[in-house]
Amino acid sequence: MELSLRIKYFTFLILGVMFIVTGIALNELDILAEITRGDFDAWYDFLAPWVGSSERPNSQLPVPWDQ
Amino acid sequence: MATKSNPENNPLKEWLSTLPNKRIRTLRLVSQLTFFFLFNGVIFGLSRIQFPIPVVLPPGAPYATAWGGFSALQYILAVGQFPFLVLGVFFLTGAIFGKLTCGWACPVGFWQDLLSWLPISKIKVSRPTNRDLQDFSGFFLWGSIIVAGFFGIQRFNGQLTGGDFWTFMPFDAIIDPAGTMFVTYFYALLWGVFDTDSLLDTVGNLFLWKTFILAIFTYISIKVPRAYCRWFCPTGALLGYVSSNSILTIKRDPTKCVDGCDACEKACPTGVPITDESTDGIANNLCILCGNCVDACPDAMSFGFRF
User: Fold this and answer.
1) Which of the four pLDDT bands, split at 50, 70 and 90, describes residue B77?
2) How is domain B249-305 classified at the CATH fold level?
3) Would you tell me how many other CB atoms lie within 10 Å of the CB of residue B123?
4) Domain carrying residue A64
5) How would you classify the pairing of strands B301-305 and B248-252?
6) Which residues touch B182 (CB under 8 Å, ≥6 apart)?
7) What is the ipTM of this complex?
8) Which among A34, B228, B246, B283 counts the fewest CB atoms within 10 Å?
9) What is the arithmetic mean of pLDDT over B173-178?
């Protein structure tokens, strides 16, 4: 039995719980929620360079993340 | 008069007995398929949850039900906050399950498993090379953190508002092959980028670059199983800092090993030197707990816990 290894995973377990609680307390879930709101234009601006299109398409196109 | 066939002389049974035991591989395939559909579950009416999980799942993926952990880490860092939540998720899951999510749930891992099944000759990579090439994943991990952190400090100090998408998620925007597959191509088709007479004028240089990167990673993953996971994936690199100390592990019983046998190592898709590992359990950050070694040698290898 390697004690140092147990100490490491126990440390990570404690750190993990503390970090998750801290992150939730600091509203990090809300930060993640910002980018997935159903705002087509914001998403288009965000994704357009990723996709490569240089022209804004018809806003009536489906936005699956908003379903 | 009909004679009863003797099962001991059944050629089908004899042939089946020569095949390797694939029980865990089958279970894993079911798991990978299930998670693939779960992670893209918006298409089936599932709701999206704003929570990071330790797999590669680009947030721009149209039907994604959650955030890929490393994408979330970059984004939170880039808006000027320390990513406690994401690190906490990685620490907790890594300490308990190691890299189980890489082997059993990650869509990109699944994609590479499918590629490795193609009947194309594989390249055998030596142990030192396998270890050295892992540095790429660390480079991508820390490079992305530094870039996202730089823009995060600027936004925190009010020197930058908004900004291009690559300043929020540099790795996803410029390198990530999952983003190219699941986001870039999806919207390129949806938004009609390809419906043009002059395609090269329409798509940007970044599109061409990402297509090139995806092609390279695809080729390497065909020739070397799980090459992207081994050497390039920053999500795996981050999880790897914790996973080698995980509670869940794979153990080898050396008393049941035969001299000169390395069936477990040959079965390992990430090239873990299993016979050099402690009998306490594999403590190698390349291990994705896929269980291929257990399938290859169920007598000596088994899943276990390190309490």
Assistant:
1) very high
2) Alpha-Beta Plaits (3.30.70)
3) 10
4) 38-67
5) antiparallel
6) B58, B60, B61, B62, B64, B107
7) 0.83
8) A34
9) 87
Same domain, A50 and A66: yes
Closest CA to B93 of B232, B293, B236: B236
Rounded Cα distance between B34 and A1, Å, is 36
Q: What H or E segment, with its residue span, contains residue B90?
A: helix B84-97
Residue B127 forms contact with A (CB below 8 Å): no
Instruction: Give the A:B interface size as CB pairs under 8 Å.
Output: 159
CA gap A50, B205 in Å, rounded: 10
Q: Within this chain, do residues A6 and A28 fall inside the same structural domain, yes or no?
A: yes
| Residues 6 or more apart whose Cβ sits within 8 Å of residue B146 | none
Which of residues 37 through 76 in chain B touch A, CB cutoff 8 A? 42-43, 45, 48, 50-52, 59-60, 62-64, 67, 72, 75-76
Contacts of A66 in chain B (CB under 8 A): none
Strand pairing partners for B302?
Answer: B251
What 3-state class would DSSP assign to B52? strand
